[in-house]
Amino acid sequence: MDRTAFHPHRVVVLALDGLLPFELGIPHRIFGRPKDAEGRHLYEVLTCSIRPPGPVETDADFHIHVPHGPEILATADTVVVPASYELGPVFDEGVLTDELAAALAHIRPGTRLAAICTGGYVLAAAGYLDGRPAATHWADAERFQQVFPRIKVDADVLFVDDGDVLTSAGVAAGIDLCLHIVRRDHGTAIANEVARRTVVPPHRDGGQAQYIHRPVPDPQLATTTAARAWALGRLHEPIQLRDMAEQESMSVRTFTRRFREEVGISPGQWLTQQRVERARHLLESTDLSVDQVAREAGFGTAQSMRQHLQAALGVTPTAYRRTFRSGGAERYCGVGVAR
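RE: above sequence
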């Protein structure tokens, strides 16, 4: 790539009064890490407020100083709106304040928009979510739907990718959303490296349940951890549900129930997710033929893998490989992941 032509993707984070410091930091942490083969940052992350540079209140016992005013939104390739607990009429009535409306007016048409948790209220009040699917924190989903009846609120999923507008549930789901964007822009290898450095799981599908009944297994009860590890080492082989259950000495029925409680999805859905991720990694990092990748990922045939990648990513294996191994500026734009 011509060094003089390189421009990092600019992410502008909109800091609103009452913001949650943890969620404000997520975009900076995730997008601030990815680099290309030459060590250049793939994203530039800037923070702005709806007022001139200055202090912004948080929900903690400190303020933050934001260096940019709303004008910087006009330069963004992606705008991220983290959660805030002081949205006023945006939260109460679903309408923008004049100040916030004026700030959002700087955003150029075609800019990618993302919201974490109650940041979705801002996008909704601005009309960006009308007629679209959207996610928010499970505890707030019912109210979100009441305030914005034109939105298709999904109370269960971690995040929703609707192309140019993405929304997530609260807190850790914001990490999942940002990692998903990195994966969508630059592939699994870079996203997984960011996840390793951040010490978080490299991939939780957007359709995974927000509320997992047993996120930390009861030490007095058998878990499905060993079965998952066993399966991950054998993705290239046929794996039956009874095979996984046998690893934990459980009946199929008990294993399936326990798996859902711990992981949030069924064993079959989880296996498909892992095989899709394996296929993506092989397509990006090896010269194996599509048929060989299909076998190594456990899909058996190229046609089966093509169907699964098309369903999960909206793209064929060949097109996916061409996008992420070309080194060009064009990147895959994923489809919605709401279940």
